[in-house]
Amino acid sequence: MGVINLSADSWYRESIRTTLESAVERGLELRGQGADIIDIGAESTLGQAKRVAAAEQQQQLLPVIKQLAAEGVIVSAETYDAGVAKACLEAGGKC
Fold first, then answer.
1. Domain edges within the chain
2. pLDDT digits (tens, 9 = 90+) for 58-73
3. pLDDT at position 46 over 70
4. Mean pLDDT lowest for which of 7-11, 33-37, 88-92?
5. Are 26 and 35 in contact (CB under 8 A)?
6. Is 35 exposed, middle or buried (0-12, 13-18, 19+ CB in 10 A)?
């Protein structure tokens, strides 16, 4: 599994990608390194991190998921919000 965090608040610094292009590039790179699935999040799970509204999560996640899914990459979305999860599934996410 590879991880991409679209939030600059992530504790896992190596996973942070803040543009569509860099996130897609990293997803393809991770797949090339052997990752079977790429997990993408738009909100840090750190307790002190700012919360990200559902609409903003979708705005960040959906373009990345669509592009990676179009490349045949299996993508999951990390979110606490059921509406965001549903939108990600509809965009091509698998779990």
1. 2-90
2. 999 999 999 999 999 9
3. no
4. 7-11
5. no
6. middle
> How much is the pLDDT for 95?
74
> Are 6 and 60 contacting, i.e. CB atoms less than 8 angstroms apart?
yes
Length reported for the chain? 95
3-state secondary structure the chain: CEEEECCCCCCCHHHECCCHHHHHHHHHHHHHCCCCCEEEECCCCCCCCCCCCHHHHHHHHHHHHHHHHHCCCCEEEECCCHHHHHHHHHCCCCC
B/e letters for 44-65, b = 16+ CB within 10 Å, e = fewer, are: beeeeeeebebeebbebbbebb
